[in-house]
Design a protein that fits this description.
Elements: E1 3-5, E2 11-15, H1 18-21, H2 34-41, H3 58-71, E3 76-80, H4 83-86, H5 96-111, E4 115-119, H6 127-130, H7 138-155, E5 161-166, H8 169-176, H9 188-211, E6 217-223, E7 227-229, H10 235-257, H11 263-272, H12 282-288, E8 293-297, E9 302-305, E10 324-325, E11 333-334, E12 339-340, H13 344-356, E13 362-366, E14 371-372, H14 387-405, E15 410-416, E16 430-431, E17 435-438, E18 444-447, H15 449-460, E19 462-464
Parallel strand pairs: 2-3, 2-15, 3-4, 4-5, 5-6, 6-8, 7-9, 8-13, 13-15
Antiparallel strand pairs: 1-19, 9-10, 11-12, 14-16, 17-18
Helix pairs in contact: 3-5, 7-9, 8-9, 9-10, 9-12, 13-14
Length: 465
């Protein structure tokens, strides 16, 4: 048997977001965001037509939920402030009911020994700003900077871990390349502008936080998907993987940590004639306001080969003009989500951060396994026996431990998610939580087997396998 001992004060917990958990309550004063709007117009695009209003009712159940976090070994927990809840129109008046809610929520966490990690933006653009272009509009960057400052002023004395964005590549990919999310566009020029504005907004929030001299750290949460070439000895495959990495990882990782955009990506964007609009002084702001702390979301690898299929000249340009995706024979899969399970990827990310990004302080901010119809795993004790989730986390933690032993500055592990939550167009199709949520019974919470296992792991700060 092997004892995997983790460093003292390791962050054990989970991650969620405001728009995926809080729900909507009559009279709460929350404004409409893009998912609220999209669901109202096209509910059929959401699994079982379940929309964000039926998220897991954290707005009214947060005190119960914090007690469940204690019972599942949390010493830290990440969520997000909903921009459209705090400032319903994105600009203008602050919603006092939101201020009261978030103060009470964060106080409840702190009083129970759970440190709140708070993210500012989790794909939930206020609809009033989206109607003016959303991240395409430079005014949104200015509105976000104001929003960030308001959050720091309101909650900065009690929240010590802040994050500017969660997965900023998602609005780029999902909204403006692949039509997965509203506004369902496919325009790489727009996608580039949106990514640029998100990176600039992040740097402005970092600048504002540091200027306020608050006692804490500010970072960003990035979903990093290591790009593996089909054949490491084939230069064309290796080049294709490097370009995919520049598009989907380094596009935000480099400016956040190094203060500059990857040159390979800049060269492609210039060649295509789709450079974003850059104001004087912007690049200096990005250069001089890098993050203190990096959150790493890891779910799956990206496998890449040299371009072999014809380029779609009519519906481009697209990132896939420069590579083809590759399905590795014999890969292990999560059949419910359609994602490859490759545990070593989490180690490779941490090694890359250590070797190429100054070994910045970091933590695993999301990692998890979505499974459909988990009720079939309920046993006579009334609990979901999700041994598959325990095994999934164990196998990833082995590699996290190895990376730490080799010098990685990894400070914690947060699973996605605390309790089953609403997940964009998938709604509740796949369940990820340590705690189940029964939608048919007023959102009744029940700890799964994995939640009790995680409590033991956190209490002992070690894993014996």
């Amino acid at each position: 048997m092997t004892n995997y001992q983790f460093p003292a004060h390791f962050w054990w917990g989970s991650a969620a977001s405001g728009p995926q958990t809080e729900g909507c309550v009559s009279g709460d004063g929350k404004g409409e965001n893009i998912f609220d709007y999209w669901y109202s117009k096209e509910p059929e695009k959401f699994f079982n037509q379940v929309g964000p209003g039926k998220a897991s009712q954290v707005y009214t159940k947060y005190k119960e939920d914090v007690q469940l976090m204690k019972q599942t070994g949390h010493n830290s927990f990440r969520t997000s402030i909903q921009w459209s809840r705090l400032i319903p129109e994105g600009i203008g008046e602050v919603n006092p009911k939101a201020v009261e809610f978030y103060h009470s929520y964060f106080d409840e966490l702190i009083e129970n020994g759970i440190e709140p990690f708070v993210n500012l933006y989790h794909c939930d653009m206020p609809m009033a700003l989206q109607e003016k272009g959303g991240w395409l509009n430079r005014e949104t960057v200015e509105a976000y900077e104001r929003y960030a400052k308001i959050c720091f002023e309101l909650f900065g004395t009690k929240v010590k871990k802040w994050f500017t964005h969660n997965e900023p590549i998602v609005p780029v990919e999902a909204g403006y390349l692949y039509r997965w999310h509203y506004p369902e566009e496919s325009d790489m020029k727009q996608a580039v502008q949106i990514g640029y504005h998100e990176a600039l907004a992040s740097a402005l929030a970092v600048k504002a936080y540091h200027e306020m001299e608050l006692e804490g750290q500010i970072g960003i949460i990035l979903n990093l998907t290591p790009s593996y070439p089909r054949d490491e000895k084939n230069p064309e495959d290796v080049k294709a993987a490097a370009i995919a990495d520049a598009f989907f990882n380094r596009s935000f990782l480099d400016p956040a940590v190094k203060g500059e955009f990857p040159q390979e990506l800049v060269a492609i964007v210039k060649e295509l004639g789709i450079m974003p609009a850059i104001n004087e002084g912007d690049l200096t702001i990005i250069k001089e306001n890098t993050i203190d702390l990096l959150g790493i979301n890891y779910y799956q690898p990206r496998r890449v080969k040299a371009k072999e299929t014809p380029i779609d000249q009519e519906n481009g340009p697209m990132p896939e003009d420069y590579f083809d995706n590759y399905q590795m024979p014999g890969r292990k899969m999560n059949p419910y989500r359609g994602w490859e399970i490759y545990e070593k990827g989490i180690y490779d990310i941490l090694v890359n951060v250590r070797e190429n990004y100054g070994n910045i302080e970091c933590f695993i901010s999301e990692n998890g396994m979505g499974v459909e119809n988990e009720a079939r795993f309920i046993k006579e004790d009334g609990m979901i026996h999700d041994d598959y989730r325990i095994e999934f986390v164990q196998e990833h933690l082995k590699y996290v431990h190895q990376a730490i032993q080799e010098g990685s500055n990894c400070l914690g592990y947060h699973m996605w998610t605390c309790m089953d939550n609403w997940s964009w167009t998938n709604a509740y199709k796949n369940r990820y939580g340590f705690i189940s949520v029964d939608l048919s019974n007023d959102g009744k919470r029940t700890i799964k087997k994995s939640g009790y296992w995680f409590k033991e792991l956190s209490d002992k700060n070690e894993m014996i396998l």
